[in-house]
Specification:
About 30% of the residues lie in helices and about 25% in strands. It is α+β, with helices and mostly antiparallel strands. It has a single domain, classed as Glutaredoxin. The chain has a 9-stranded mixed β-sheet. A two-stranded antiparallel sheet has the order 1-2. β8, α3 and β9 form a beta-alpha-beta unit. The longest helix is centred in the middle third of the chain and has 17 residues. The protein is globular, with a radius of gyration of 15 Å.
């Protein structure tokens, strides 16, 4: 089934959270794949899991990897597509928060299996300035078990998964990263 065939609804959101194995401990969430799958590793002495690393081509040239920010900045990882109405609504907010917090929090917008020209046109026409990466082989999408667009992962400065955010991002998510 293509991503375009997936409908995002409340039942789907609940299913995604159950599928991902999200548990809430003391106000933060840890994320692990089904039966500990796909590169999600526990960090010693922590209930959080190390975010799976990837290396993808950047829209503006070169590559981007999650590990390049470890120890430097927290990260909001956003999985999106230009045809997704929820992404189209959410990305201006993501831009606004990126501009406000970019010295402390990086945003990486991972495009899901779209033609580069289509994604590039959408990003440029909207004036988004956060890093955009292409995932044509679904490398990152598989690592994060993405089932729906407009899914975000909050990753702390040490590279640990703090919380998944299925749906729209808000400023409270950025503040949570600053506190973690």
């Amino acid at each position: 089934m293509s991503l375009k065939g997936i409908l995002i609804g409340s039942a789907g959101v609940i299913g995604l959270l159950v599928f991902m194995g999200v548990s809430n401990r003391g106000g933060t969430a840890s994320v692990s794949g089904p039966q500990g799958a796909s590169g999600v590793q526990s960090t010693s002495g922590s209930s959080l899991a190390l975010a799976p690393d990837f290396e993808l081509e950047r829209m503006d040239g070169g590559t981007i990897s999650l590990s390049e920010f470890r120890g430097k900045k927290a990260v909001v990882l956003d999985f999106w597509a230009s045809w997704c109405p929820n992404c189209r609504r959410d990305m201006p907010n993501l831009q606004k928060f990126y501009e406000k917090y970019k010295d402390e929090i990086e945003v990486i917008a991972v495009n899901l299996q779209e033609k580069e020209s289509k994604a590039r046109e959408f990003i440029e026409s909207n004036g988004f300035t956060f890093p955009v990466a292409f995932d044509p082989s679904s490398q990152a999408a598989r690592l994060y078990q993405i089932q729906y667009t407009n899914t975000h992962f909050l990753i702390d400065k040490e590279g640990n998964l703090v919380q998944p955010v299925v749906g729209d991002i808000n400023e409270g998510h950025f503040k949570l990263l600053l506190e973690s």
